[in-house]
């Protein structure tokens, strides 16, 4: 590696440790970067007021150019700044949620008030959640796995394009149907719950889907369940990454 001796501290250093210089023979500053910085710092300490005034005056005089440069830099790195801002917002949100939760834990009256307000504002969502919880309980009573969440259910509905898994009708009243029925040990999990209209839901009752559906339809539903599982896994990974 090429080196050069600093004429101030006398140390032999790699060329990358020197700033470039417009008029020297080798195009590099005679003083190493550390020495340059120390000199600058020493000057600043002695002439602090002067330095502040100078940079203030410089800023005033070049206000527009500086702003323009800053804006250009921002535009050139917009993706980076957007990602940074997004990450910061998410961290803040998470921290605030943790703080709020801790506070609510030690203040039951606050917890009750928050819950009450949430229920009032999200009546429909709350009703759906209670309904899901009840279904989970029923499945668990039979010693079957039951861990479907509201979020997972939404992703499943997306995967089925919000249509009945069996007849393809756009669903208005969403019913969570056990693909493999409860009576045949079907679990209440994302891998076994599909959206169905009321009619199909009651028509199917506890029949085995393999007997009830054509092979083609059966495979199609299996495919959409798998898509939903992939989307769920992706969302869970994203949440962990935050
Ligand atoms: Zn030096
Ligand atoms: Zn249907």
Structure, described:
Helix content is 63%, strand content 6%. It is mostly helical and 242 residues long. It folds into 3 domains: 1-46, Wheat Germ Agglutinin (Isolectin 2), domain 1; 80-118; 124-241, 2-Layer Sandwich (Herpes Virus-1), CATH 3.30.40. Strands 1-2 form a two-stranded antiparallel sheet. The protein has a two-stranded antiparallel sheet with strand order 3-4. The longest helix is centred in the middle third of the chain and has 29 residues, at 78-106. The protein is elongated and about 90 Å long. It starts with a strand and ends with a helix. Bound molecules: zinc ion (2 copies). One zinc ion (ZN) binds at residues 6, 8-9, 11, 31-32, 34-35.
Instruction: Order the strands across the largest sheet as they lie in space.
Output: 1-2
How many beta-strand segments? 4
| Bound heterogens, unique | zinc ion
Helical residues, percent: 55-70%
**CATH architecture annotation name of the largest domain:** 2-Layer Sandwich
**Helix-strand topology string:** EEHHHHHHHEEHHH
Name the structural class: mainly alpha
Main sheet: strands, sense, barrel: 2 strands, antiparallel
Kindly provide the name of the CATH class of the largest domain.
Alpha Beta
Query: What is the average per-residue confidence, as pLDDT, rounded to a whole number?
Result: 91
Rg, Å, rounded: 33 Å
How many helical elements? 10
Count of all domains = 3
